[in-house]
Structure formats: structure tokens, C-alpha cells
Write a structure and sequence with these properties.
Distance between the termini of chain A: 65 Å
CATH class of chain C: Mainly Alpha
Number of strands of chain A: 0
Number of helices of chain C: 4
Shape of chain A: elongated
Shape of chain C: elongated
Number of domains of chain C: 1
Largest sheet of chain C: none
Order of helices and strands of chain C: HHHH
Number of strands of chain C: 0
Oligomer: heterotrimer
Strand content of chain A: under 5%
Structural class of chain C: mainly alpha
CATH topology of chain C: Helix Hairpins
Number of domains of chain A: 1
Structural class of chain A: mainly alpha
Chains: A mainly alpha, B mainly alpha, C mainly alpha
CATH architecture of chain C: Orthogonal Bundle
Radius of gyration of chain A: 19 Å
Strand content of chain C: under 5%
């Protein structure tokens, strides 16, 4: 029973990772791409590590997996924030702002 | 099943390596190299080489990528397209590749237990090392005890590389004034860095002393500890970091590690045994082996930490000189 | 067919080696040469580790109930090689920084024939 739940969680986590990768190609703008990558990354991490935790008995491996999960949930969104903030600092405009600029220069 | 994973990972590796040839933006090339390193770490795990995967992930994908990005900050990001003809290198590469593939046709099948590589020395290590040295991790016992002399040479090479980089680039002087870096105004990064850096240092100590029972050891631990301090220098500024770990201390630490390692060997010479023979360090030979291995892994960890951090200081000091913040 | 299954590991490694070799000899930018050198080194590591693998074995860490282990000797050699590789890369990158300071460029065809430093 536990095997089936853990397999389902692993497959779901892989599916979310895949949608994140598809989003990296399909989204039009840098900031939307960062959003796609980081959100799907967090949910895929949670699902995959939960699936792996269900496969081990209650010993050191479980605690190590829990530590890994906590660490990745702290650092993943922080890394995405650093990316977006440095892009903004470098002067990158969002898609709405570039369209607004183009409209102003056309008028 | 493992063959399919192997195939997929090797295909991704080949695509990544091919794309390095054609891309002109060097930042992308360095990122692709980081991906290549992580994928090869996955392949190493698949091939049962967990220690090697740990080292490749931390040293190859961690420190190499950081140093290359530091160089890119100093030399520029775009590669200019050249008018060199590519027909001669292509010809040389094809001839060499054909010769190598002709050589692999004679090689023994992949994974066969009766390969020549699995005879002679390897069964002796696998069968005798739990009894003679008493550590579960056979790679550590071979690295630190059976082939300890090679590891002394490796530590000396890391020390020599640190000396080489320091003589080429020089360390930043410790500032009288504390200049905060621009990154200090980013609240999220500051708080997250403050939370994580102690955990990273703790993990480095865990890896150092747990190398006898699982994957780990001095090299990985030194690199992880250096990574914690590199994160500190990136978020809070180089001059603050040079106050926390001054460059003079790093020079002493790098030499101290090699001294501890060679000193353990000399101690066993004084106790009338061979150089780096740890069995005489305690009354019980197995306990002596344990003491010797912990001492030399400590030496290795200290030297690698000091070497990697001083190399990073050297590169970052150059950026400060060019006034790039 | 069996022959291909037994040897494809080595062939892919040879391909990666040749890609790295091509980058080293044909790249104009020095940083790209160093990246190519690292690609070459990592593919050589993969060849050694695949020589040491035993099918059905486990990682060479002694545990209860496991009888076959993979060969620990190539792992030790490659551990040393990885660390020496990163040491070489660090010195190479430091040399590139000094070349940039001396000649103003890191493209090889621009400073190959220069006599004076800047």
C-alpha cells in the first residue's frame, strides 16, 4: 500500500518537473520563466522527497531526507528571488513595461 | 533498468558537451559546464561510485564553476567569432576518435565480474580492509591507508595550486575600513544566508568526520566549508569576510594541513615503522589505523579549505581592484 | 547486439573525450579552452569508473548482507584526479586573468604574435 502511494507521489513530482521545463520554453518573458521554474521546482521537491520518505523505515535515512527537504525549501525560493532581483537591478523590464514603452514611442 | 537511466544520462551529457562548442556567450558555456558536471555526478552514482559523485558534485560543479564565473567577471562575457578554419582540428579529432574506438573493441565487457581489473589487488582490498583497518568505507581506507602516499602528493598539489594562484594574483589586503557590499541591502538574501551558513559549516564537519562510515572525507569537507565562507563573502562583502577569516590565517592554515599529514608519517618513522604506517600509533594496530586516518583526513580538510578560500580571495580581490561591485 | 550493450559505455565516453579535445584545440577564447579541458577530464573519469563497475555489486561500503562490491581502487584514483583537475583549472584561470591584464584580450589570435605588453 505504501509502495503505491510513494510511486504515485514520485510520478506526480516528475510530472510537475516536466511542466516546469515546458514552461521554461513556452513563457514569453524572463520573469514569468523564473516563476515557472521556481514554483514547479518547490512542489516537485516536496512530492519527490515525500515519496522517497515513504519507502524507508523509520531510521536515519528518513531524518536525512527531512533535512534535505527543509534545506531545499529554504534555498530554492531564495535563489529564484536572487535571480529576479538581480535582473531587475540590471534594468530588465517586464513584458508589460516593454509593451507600454513601445506604445508610448509609437504614439 | 539501470542501463536505461545510464543511456538517458549519457545522451543528455553528449548534448550538453556538443552545445558548448557552438555557443558564443561564455556565461551560458560556464552554466552548461556546471550542468555537465552534475550530470556526470549522477552517472557516477549509477555506477556505484558514491564518493566520486560527492567529490565531483562539490569540487567539479561547485568550486570550478565559481572560479570560472570569477574569471568571466574579469575578462568579459562574449567570445568573438574567429576566422580560424575548423577543417584541421576536425580531421585530427576524427582520426584520434577512430583510433580510440578501435582500441575499445578489445576491452572486456562492461560490468563483468571476471574482468582483469577486478583481479589481483581489488579482492585483497575488499576482503581484508574491514579486518585490517576496521572501517566500513573501503574507499577511505584505500585512500588514507593503503595508498596514503598518493594522497599526500594530492594534498601537496592543492597546496602548490594555492601558492601558484597567490603568486600570480596576490591576496587582498585586510582593509582598515569595513566597506559593505551592495548586496547587504537585499534583506531576503541576508536573512537566508545568516540562516544557512552555520548549517553548511556544520554539514562540512559532519562530512569530514563521517567519511569513515559513508561517502565523505577531507576533500569534500574542505570544499563545503570554503563554499560557506564564499557565500558569506558574496552576501556581506569581501572586506567583511577578510575580517572574519584574514588572508594571513589562510596562508598558515594551508601549510598547517600538509604539515599535519606529513607529520603523522614522520611520527610513525620515529616509532620505528615505515613512513605513513599507522599501525604503530597505538597499542592495537586497528586503533592505530583509526587514529592515523582521522589525523590525515583532518590535515587534508584544513589544507583544501584554506587553499580554496584563498584562491577565491585572490580572484575576488582582483575584481575589487577593477572596482566591480 | 550483445557486443553493443557491453561496449556502448566506452563509445559514448570516447565521443565526449573527442568533443572536449575539439574544444581545446579549436577554441579561440582561452576560457572556453579551459572549459573544454574540464569536459575532457570528466569524460576520462567516467571511463575509469565504468571499468571498475561490477554488475549486481553495490557501492564499496561494507554493509550487512551484501556480498559483491564494486572495485574501490578506480574510485580512489579518480578522487585524486578530480582534485588535481580543479587545482590545475584554478592556476589556468589565474594565468588567464594575468594575460588579460598584460595584453588586454583573451582571444588567442589577437595576442599570439604580439611582442610588447600593454
Amino acid at each position: 500500500m505504501l509502495e503505491i502511494i510513494s510511486s504515485a507521489l514520485l510520478i506526480l513530482g516528475a510530472f510537475f518537473s516536466l511542466t516546469g521545463a515546458v514552461g521554461l520554453f513556452k513563457f514569453p518573458d524572463f520573469f514569468t520563466r523564473v516563476h515557472a521554474a521556481s514554483v514547479t521546482d518547490s512542489i516537485a521537491t516536496i512530492l519527490i522527497i515525500l515519496g522517497l520518505m515513504l519507502r524507508s523505515d523509520f531510521d536515519l535515512v528518513l531524518v536525512k531526507l527531512l533535512f534535505i527537504l527543509v534545506f531545499m525549501l529554504i534555498t530554492g525560493p531564495a535563489a529564484a528571488h536572487a535571480l529576479a532581483k538581480s535582473a531587475r537591478h540590471g534594468g530588465l523590464l517586464t513584458l508589460a513595461e516593454t509593451r507600454g514603452n513601445k506604445k508610448e514611442s509609437e504614439d | 533498468m539501470t542501463e536505461i537511466i545510464d543511456l538517458v544520462l549519457l545522451a543528455m551529457l553528449a548534448i550538453t558537451a556538443l552545445s558548448v562548442i557552438f555557443i558564443k556567450d561564455l556565461f551560458t558555456v560556464v552554466m552548461l559546464f556546471g550542468i555537465y558536471s552534475f550530470l556526470s555526478a549522477l552517472i557516477f552514482v549509477n555506477l556505484d561510485a558514491v564518493d566520486v559523485a560527492f567529490t565531483e558534485a562539490s569540487v567539479g560543479a561547485g568550486i570550478s564553476t565559481v572560479l570560472m564565473l570569477g574569471t568571466l567577471a574579469l575578462t568579459g562575457r562574449k567570445e568573438k567569432s574567429s576566422s580560424r578554419q575548423t577543417i584541421l582540428p576536425l580531421l585530427v579529432v576524427c582520426v584520434t576518435g577512430a583510433a580510440l574506438i578501435y582500441g575499445t573493441l578489445d576491452m572486456p565487457p562492461f560490468g563483468d565480474p571476471n574482468n582483469p581489473a577486478q583481479q589481483h589487488v581489488a579482492p585483497r582490498y575488499i576482503n581484508d580492509s574491514p579486518r585490517e583497518i576496521g572501517l566500513p568505507n573501503m574507499v577511505t581506507s584505500v585512500l588514507a591507508s593503503y595508498r596514503g602516499f598518493d594522497t599526500l602528493g594530492e594534498t601537496a598539489v592543492v597546496f602548490a595550486a594555492a601558492i601558484g594562484v597567490l603568486s600570480l594574483l596576490g591576496l587582498p589586503k585586510q582593509d582598515r575600513t569595513l566597506i559593505q557590499s551592495g548586496l547587504k541591502s537585499h534583506l531576503v538574501l541576508r536573512v537566508v544566508a545568516k540562516m544557512i551558513i552555520p548549517l553548511i559549516v556544520l554539514f562540512a564537519l559532519y562530512v569530514q568526520f563521517h567519511g569513515d562510515y559513508g561517502p565523505g572525507g577531507g576533500f569534500q569537507a574542505g570544499v563545503i566549508a570554503a563554499a560557506a565562507l564564499i557565500l558569506y563573502a558574496l552576501v556581506f562583502g569581501l572586506s567583511v569576510a577578510t575580517h572574519v577569516v584574514p588572508p594571513k590565517v589562510l596562508k598558515i592554515l594551508a601549510a598547517l594541513g600538509v604539515l599535519i599529514y606529513a607529520g603523522t608519517g614522520v611520527v610513525s618513522l620515529f616509532l620505528s615503522a615505515n613512513f605513513l604506517d599507522y599501525s604503530v600509533l597505538a597499542s592495537n594496530p586497528v586503533a592505530g589505523q583509526h587514529i592515523g586516518i582521522i589525523a590525515i583526513e583532518l590535515g587534508v580538510g584544513i589544507t583544501v579549505f584554506a587553499a580554496m578560500l584563498s584562491i577565491f580571495y585572490a580572484f575576488a580581490g582582483q575584481a575589487e581592484r577593477k572596482n566591480i561591485q | 547486439m550483445n557486443f553493443i550493450v557491453e561496449h556502448y559505455n566506452y563509445w559514448v565516453v570516447v565521443f565526449l573525450m573527442m568533443v572536449g579535445f575539439y574544444i581545446v584545440i579549436s577554441a579561440n577564447n582561452l576560457v572556453k579552452k579551459i572549459v573544454g579541458l574540464n569536459v575532457f577530464q570528466t569524460s576520462v573519469f567516467m571511463m575509469y569508473i565504468s571499468i571498475g563497475k561490477v554488475t549486481g555489486g553495490s557501492a564499496p561500503i561494507a554493509a550487512e548482507g551484501i556480498t559483491t562490491y564494486s572495485n574501490p581502487l578506480p574510485h580512489v584514483l579518480i578522487l585524486t584526479a578530480i582534485v588535481v583537475g580543479v587545482a590545475t583549472t584554478a592556476v589556468g584561470l589565474a594565468l588567464i586573468v594575468r594575460i588579460k591584464r598584460a595584453y588586454g584580450t583573451v582571444e588567442e589570435n589577437e595576442f599570439e604574435h604580439k611582442e610588447e605588453l600593454i
